[in-house]
Amino acid sequence: MRRLLVIISLLLLAGCTAPILVPPGTPTPAEIGIWQPIAAGVQVITAADGLIALRHGPGRVTYTAQFEPNPNQARNVGRWLADSVTAVAAMNCGFYLQEEERYQHIGLLMADGEVLEKLRPRWGGVLIVRRGIAAITRRPQQLLGPGALGIQGWPTLVWQAATVAGLDASIADRRTAVGIDDRGRIVWVVSPSPLSLDEFGQRLLQPDLNLIDAINLDGGVSTGLRWRDLESGDQHGPNNLPTPCAILISLP
Length: 252
Known about the structure:
The chain is globular, with a radius of gyration of 20 Å. It has a 7-stranded antiparallel β-sheet, covered by helices on one side. Strands 4-19-5-17-18 form a 5-stranded antiparallel β-sheet. The protein has a 5-stranded antiparallel β-sheet with strand order 9-8-12-10-11, with no helix packed on it. The protein has one domain. It is built from 3 helices and 19 strands. 40% of the residues are buried. The termini are far apart. 10% of the residues lie in helices and 39% in strands. A hairpin with a 2-residue loop joins strand 1 and strand 2 (42-46). The chain is mainly beta. It has helices spanning 2-13, 77-82, 197-204, and strands spanning 36-39, 42-46, 52-56, 62-67, 87-92, 96-99, 102-105, 109-111, 114-117, 125-130, 133-138, 149-153, 156-158, 173-181, 186-195, 211-217, 225-228, 235-236, 245-250.
């Protein structure tokens, strides 16, 4: 340590600036608050308040929904991503419950036309991607045919560029959401810092995200969003505790 201090002092005396050492994967000040490309058509942002988001055009990627009903096979999103050969990013899904020795996803979970779990009528909201177009439906009654992606969550947080009335403002927790911005892109959002649902909804309206519609996904210890550096293979982003569910995003 003393030797390091001597070297830094000599550099300063010589008119040089010592390098700033940061942990691997930590955004530099220039990266904070700026959308950074990680793959063609896929970008991530780390905001100054710690919120992290990934966005992409609905027609620029492909989706895989993973659900493992065996509780002993649950994994965190970093493991789900590592186990995939093609995925560039992974995030946790909607809600689930445990019935005896088996997990069950609550509400619609669909990818590439395969329905892993059926729609729960008149509950929360549903993100549907079909023919390269993303849309969110509130209180859906039926599934109108297969699509590239379908995921159901509760409650709806943002609707038509405004927060939904009656969101809870008393309980703070880590949060996960998926929404659509003003350009039709899908935006996956996690807040590692605790927020109430009302605070989270208000945050999704801020200019760096600018979501028009958004639904709440499973938060708390399930909150996780990881992406892969295509050159090094290293992962970045917040991990979570093991969950039975993940959405994987791959390039076509």
